[in-house]
Specification:
By secondary structure, the chain is an alpha+beta fold. It is about 25% helix and about 25% strand. The protein contains eight helices and 19 strands. The strands form two sheets. Strands 5, 6, 7, 9, 10, 11, 12, 13, 14, 15, 16, 17, 18 and 19 form a 14-stranded antiparallel beta sheet that branches. A hairpin with a 2-residue loop joins strand 12 and strand 13. Helix 1 crosses helix 2.
Length: about 350
């Protein structure tokens, strides 16, 4: 990749969002910058963006309003060395924002890893081109930063998860049972105090864990969304019921050809289908009816999501080799309630902590 023209490998989508959507994004991002990132004008800011889709254009304009003194670089109009050089000029605790219709490639330069190694604050907005029209407006809504909700409910959920001895997910007549304690829960709630790395992919809103003993998970769970082989949200006509024995998916009732393909790919590479992550999504802008196509964004949906496949980089398990773990596929449970020990922590579409 040696010239600006070589960046343009994706179709250009010039769809334009309503003017008030940019004002809404500006308000939400101002809160993210001031509250979550504690960014002030005493620190430099670099915004790397493209103009290939309406949502990317809207976010770039919103950041121009929020960060009038920042340096802005259109990724498609410069050589990659210009971007790398601009990053090199930043000092620790300065801010980098990445606004990406797909995701930026800088040859062997792993962008987020390098930014965190330099102790820079990072806000990533990837795969924006997957969310046109109404989905773009849902995405902008999802950037709202309610600190009392995310930090209060998020930390309360973590505390409750960390002391639980067991739990289950009721997905409307089916129960997925976790008959063991959980791994120490991780927070993605925009509270970076005391953390080495500040920032990550937006939107935020999640607490996640998994069973300490994967084989202690069994039962059935109905899923209404899964991530397909294109990393897009796939919604079957009726929920698929996963049958789980000793932490492995052994059957999928009312499956679809696309979901069968997902399971077949996992089995081909890993031999069996482990169920790993238990995610407590908190972002109230995404529901079963307010969908966006990008699975990495929809993962924050308020409710329960799970992962299929052996791959989960944050928790080590003695019976899973990292070198051979290749798949992490998000699936979303029909969630009537969630119980930890004897406490109902989710009911009626909201967290009860």
């Amino acid at each position: 990749m040696n010239s600006a023209s070589q960046h343009l490998s994706e179709p250009v989508d010039k769809d334009i969002l309503p003017y008030d959507a940019i004002s809404t994004a500006e308000k939400h991002l101002n809160d993210v910058l001031s509250i979550a990132f504690e960014h002030t004008s005493s620190h430099a800011a670099l915004v790397v963006f493209d103009t290939r889709c309406g949502l990317a254009n809207a976010l770039a304009e919103a950041y121009r309003r929020c960060l009038p003194h920042a340096t802005f670089i259109d990724f498609d109009t410069v050589l990659q060395e210009v971007v790398v050089g601009a990053i090199a000029q930043l000092a620790p605790t300065d801010l980098v924002v990445l606004i990406q219709t797909t995701n930026f490639r800088l040859d062997a330069y792993r962008v987020r890893v390098e930014l965190f190694k330099r102790d820079l604050k990072v806000i990533e907005h990837p795969h924006l081109g997957r969310m046109p029209g109404q989905e773009a407006l849902y995405y902008i809504d999802s950037l709202a930063y309610d600190a009392s909700y995310y930090r209060g409910v998020g930390n309360a959920l973590k505390s409750r998860i960390d002391r639980a001895r067991s739990g289950f997910v009721d997905s409307g007549g089916e129960r997925l049972v976790f008959a063991c304690p959980f791994e120490s829960a991780k927070l993605n709630v925009g509270d970076y105090r005391g953390m080495k790395n500040v920032g990550g992919q937006f939107p935020i809103g999640e607490v996640f864990t998994e069973a300490q003993d994967l084989e202690a998970v069994s039962g059935r769970v109905r899923i209404f969304i899964f991530g397909d082989t294109t990393f897009s949200v796939n919604r079957p006509e009726k929920p698929i019921t996963l049958v789980v024995e000793k932490g492995r998916v052994v059957d999928a009732i009312d499956s679809t050809p696309e979901f069968d393909k997902v399971l077949a790919n996992i089995r081909a590479d890993e031999g069996e289908v482990w169920l790993r992550e238990l995610g407590f999504g908190m972002n109230r802008s995404f529901t079963k009816d307010r969908l966006v196509c990008d699975i990495g964004t929809y993962e924050r949906m308020c409710g329960i999501h799970l992962s299929l496949g052996a791959k989960h980089g944050l928790y080590n398990k003695p019976n899973i080799r990292r070198a051979t773990a290749r798949h992490h596929v998000d699936v979303f449970a029909v969630t009537e309630s969630v119980v930890l020990d004897d406490d109902i922590v989710y009911r009626d579409g909201a967290w009860q902590v």
